[in-house]
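Students often ask why we bother encoding 3D structure as a string. The short answer is that it lets us treat folding as translation between two languages. Here is a chain of 384 residues written in the first language.
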Amino acid sequence: MDDLVSELDRRLAAADAALTADYRGDRGVRQPVHTVYVPADRYAADTVADWGAQARTALDEHPEFAKELDLPDDVYDRVRGKLEREPIEDLRIDFEDGYGNRPDDEEDAAAIAAAQVAQQTPYYGLRIKSLEAPTRRRGVRTLDLFLEHLGEVGDGFVITLPKVTSVEQVSAMVYVLEILEQKHQLPQLKFEIQVETPQAILGADGTALIARMVKAGGTRVTGLHYGTYDYSASLGVAAAYQSMEHPVADHAKDVMQLAAAGTGVFVSDGSTNVLPVGDAIHDAWRLHFRLVRRSLARGIYQGWDMHPAQLPTRFAATYLFYREGLDQAALRLRAYLGHGESGYLDEPATAVALAGFVLRGIECGAIDAGDFDIKDLAKLARRA
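And here it is in the second language, the structure alphabet:
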């Protein structure tokens, strides 16, 4: 028997090594619940504080917010506290669609100015223009200038690469970062792949390219971000029906989740362009609240926010999700560990999901650690 197993070890050595290399597991870091996009020309040293203030003002001007969304008092209080303490978890300074095409000297100045006040949130970075031929030079130039004036690169720094259409563009991005790291004496830089073209999901030969993109980026790739409107428009969906919940969006995100599973790469949903402003604020709030809850239920724990008044519904929906599920998750975890009965026969994989659920809730501020030991949760959740 020992000889048989030794032979199996030999035969499967390459497959074992590939599994370990390609599916590295959880990176052991907190995933932000959202990414906020701010056009580069509107970004300043007080941007985060200003967004928090605007979000709180929206609540003050609409005291019916909690009642309309059926929020318990404790959830509303936590949302208010989050908006004061940490209104934005992840911020991207946008030099792409939100910024547009400007004269070179104007974008140069914006890149330098933004870099000097970049780190205001736990996760932060910039979205450059794509590596498609028409915008390639401008995208690389902006990134070069930004890094030159950034100073220290924090652990939460990430670059968003938009409109990716080929595996070769991901490999090219790795090459760009290697060169810029050497030039500016920087640690390894990370980037996210923005999935907003049909080519990222299905190649010309009929193969799913997004998994190959993740592999091509290696440990540099930290996330896959869905681009709601570019992707929907590319598939011919009429503007009135472009949405995070359209079937074409769900298909793309299903492929993204499959490609990212077990790799440590975060998946983020996109945005809604229905903004909570003016007389339509309540309808927009209800829509955003529902869409955030829908993403969470589908196992997508991050999304984009494009307006300060979306922050209250982002945190309200997220906090309610974790608080509603906490009691059952805690009961099932304790039962799995041999401390009582839950009525469920949970397997190890489900225990990982339960621990991850509680850990995410604690990290974003939705729930308190209580009797849970964070290190024990992280171990059970298989955090690296």
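Translate back mentally: DSSP finds 15 helices and eight strands in the chain. Keep this in mind for the problem set.
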